[in-house]
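Data card: per-record layout.
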Amino acid sequence: MNTPKVAVIMLNWNGYADTIECIESLKKVTYTNFFIIIVDNASSCNDVQILHEKFGNYVDILAQEKNWGFPEGCNIGMRYALTKGADYLLLLNNDTVVDPEFMEELVKTAEGDEKIGIVGSKVYYYYYPTRIQYIGGRINWILGINGTYIKDEEDFGQYDMPMWQDYVPATSCMIKRSVVEKIGYLDPFYFWAIEEFDYCTRAKRAGFKIIYQPKSKIWHKWQASGVKLSDYPETRNMINKMVGAGAYKLWWRLYRTYSPPALFIIPFLLQVSLIGPFCVLFFKRSWRVLLRGIISRFSGKSR
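The structure for this 303-residue chain is written out next.
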């Protein structure tokens, strides 16, 4: 197999312990031609110093003076990676640990078809290591149903075949250099969420294939960044504007951009008003939980 150069790009925000654990797992991967870029999104503690002392020249740390959010933070790392000659840009959450063969499987898949532009991993819960969290999914641009994005299922081998998807989670996804050269970078507008819906859709409409590769496995500490928000009021307030009713602008932009012009209002209304709360009702079977879910959408306070 060819060994193209892979840049692993991860963001750090007051989470050096998670970042260290992730990097330690990356040291065990079987693929050899890669380097690691850490974009520190203005951590208020001494994360940059700790990471420098721990890893030295093993990683490239790009310290930022403000929190750019997830998409633009990734863009900073991607731009830097391209100047270093990277053939692939592997976005990886810092609150993950990886299987030793996860990167090799991503590269092997991407190299197998020149039309493949983005490859995503099978994502498990870190604290429930046999339970599947994400595998990517399909998007219905008329009804606004986002396919199989969150599985939350025990792994019995039911998703062990590679699948063509409309999108894969940015938790762990590898992007070919040619994709960035053709469609550009992630949209910073999606500061906190659904950026992969937008970017994968752009890539697919530009002629690239999106694929989920189940042999590439990682384990994700879901919402590890979110639980720290109470300690950082300024960032928390900024995020609160993008959840609840404030999140509507994200979905509005997404469906306004990609749904049929005369019909985009249908998936928008279904997504923000019905699908989320009634999925809660279906799975939890509790009207009280449903009511809390609807209130949280409009209050901006996630429950």
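Known properties of this structure: Residues 243-299 form one domain. The chain has two domains: 6-228, 243-299.

See the next section for split statistics.
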